[in-house]
Each structure stands twice: as structure tokens, then as C-alpha cells.
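With this grant's support, we have settled on a layout for protein records. An illustrative entry appears below exactly as we store it:
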Amino acid sequence: MTCSALGIANRRSLLLLLGLTLGMACGDGSVAAPQPASAPPASTSAPHIAGAIADGQGILPAPHPVRLPADDGAHDARLEWWYYNGHVESTDGRRYSFHLVVFKRQSGAERSAYVAHVSITDHQRGAYQFSEQLSVPPPQKPQAAEFDLLVGAVQARGGDGAYRLRGGAQDYRLELELDSAKPAVLHGVTGFIGLSGSEASYYYSRTGLRARGMVVDHGEPLRVTGIAWMDHQWGDFTLEGEGGWDWFGIQLQDSTEVMVSVVRNGAGETALAYGTYIDAAGKALHLPASALRVAARGLWRSPETGATYPSGWTLELPGQGLSLQIDPAVAAQEMVTHGSVGRAYWEGATRVSGWAQGQPIGGIGYAELTGYDRAGEGR
């Protein structure tokens, strides 16, 4: 789920869209949050950050190094999110994919509101169901090294590469334990990426998580195992402006992973594109815009919202010898979140096939597509 942009940021910048909902929940959506300890210091110049965006690199020196597991917990920051996706299979061969995310918007030193989104894709039925919940807990101080986030019936807790998730969507429920098979990945080399103007954000992932636990399918409990992905992002940023993004997280059969973020401005033009390639041993390589090519191959129109999303993509990373085709596992994987953020976005499981260094390869992944529900956006 990443955050990068010229005028708007990636993924859990959905918190920009949470502004009205969380502002009302907190009582005042216009109150400026205090400067978090991990936010860019005053000496970080706008031209420096803007230049990194303009040249497509997005690489910035971090004002404070990302320290793990200390930075796994919540921060004194205006916006923050913990995002998970994954793919699991039951002992009898039934396959499910899931996404679970908790957003935090802070208004005041210890005052926060939380939104949780959960979606589950049932590959047997070709079904997709989702849920959304909102919570304004009593004031609490951030905890370092770990977190325990409870939003209604959704819970995400853990730290240091080990997590427990609980949540559901209509006819499905999941309870999973995740543990990391690889080190954390700092995006943009330092884990600190440029957004717009003088804004920036911290961002890291755990791209090789092992998953085990239970999925309840229409009342039937099933033991499952599989793989998962985690994103964590935070900062004192506002993400003003209009636009959207296409984000891809890919896990390949050779134990490598790829993250790609393509961000659009309000005119629908690409404002920033970058990614990260993670090899089988967990070593990460930053990919500037010049190192990747991504193109949509088709379209899908939502019968519920009327939004038209790209559907099916090609992705090429020449430097890694990768040529991939990405296809939705199910076409209709749209989150219509009128109860929390008042927006619709496409968040769904994908199938991946193609070539790596001249050899056939397959994989699985997730895609997130935002901004396509806005009338008048160029697309």
C-alpha cells in the first residue's frame, strides 16, 4: 500500500479522503497536528524534495533513520497506516486472498481516529466481499516497537516482523498469524520518500511474510497457510490536491518481490513512478521511473459506481530481466467505502505470469487503483 506523489500520494493517502469523516469524528478536521518526532526538520528544503520528485528518483536522506522494531509502533504523526495483503490456501485446496488496513488520523497530541478496511476474495466462487469500520478510541500515547490496533471487529497487532490479524467481510472471517521470512524493505533507499512540495513520508514494507491460521467461509472454519505482505507508512503531511495512483505488490515464484507505484496528478498525467525490487535473499533495489515500464491492457467499468478502472497490465523491469503480465483474479474487486471515506477504489488480488531472465515465471500479487471514481479526472 505506498505513498508518493506530485499533488497526491500513494496508497494509504486514502487518509486524505478520510479528512471529512475523521475530522467530524475528532470534532475538528482543521486542527493542525503537532510536528511529529520523525517528521522532516525545518531545514529540509522544498526545492530538494521537489527536485527528487521531478527527476523521478524520489530518493531523500531521512532526517531520522528508520529504526526497527522501534518504528513498528504508532508515531506522533498526522497520518499513519498499517496495511496487509495476502494469499492463503486451505488443506483441501480452497484459495482466498485478503487485504486488511488500519488508517490513523491524528488531531492533537494524543487524539486519533481510526478506520479499518477488510476485503476477501474467494477464488472458488469468484466472489469479493468487503467491510469498513470507524473508531475514535480514548486518547492514548504512541507505543514504540509494537502496536495493537482495534477498530470494531478488526484487529492488527504485533511488531518486529510478527503480526496477528483478525477481521471479516460479510460471509467471511479470518484470523491469521504472520511472521517475516525476510528483512524489512526501506523504500526510496532510506525509507523516506518525497511527496509534494516540501512534504515527505516514511515508508517500509515486509514483503515476504508467512501466513497461517483460519478462514471461516460461510460458517465453515478452514485451516489455511500462505504468504502475505505488509506496508507501514507515517508522517506529518497533508497530501493536498487531486489525482490518484496505481500500486502493485508482486510476489514471484522464485522468492523475489516487486513494488511499483505510478501516481497521477489532477489532470490524469503521470506525476511520479518508482518501485523497489527485492531479491530472494531480501536485498532491496530502488527503481526510478527510468527503470520500469507499466501499461494497462484493458478496462473494467463498475456497475455500482460507474467508475472505469484499468484492468490487466504489462510490467517490464529491463534491468532485472523481468517481463510480466498482471491480471485481476476477479474483475469486480471494488471497495465502495461510503461508510468511512466516502470513496470507491479498486483493491484486489492479481495473477502474475511472464518471463524472468528468459525463463517462464509465475506469481501472485495485489493491485490498488484510486482516483478513478472522481468525475472529470483524465483517464
User: Anything to note?
Assistant: The radius of gyration is 19 Å. Residues 46-54 form the longest helix (9 residues). Residues 11-370 form a domain with the AttH-like fold fold (CATH 2.40.370.10).
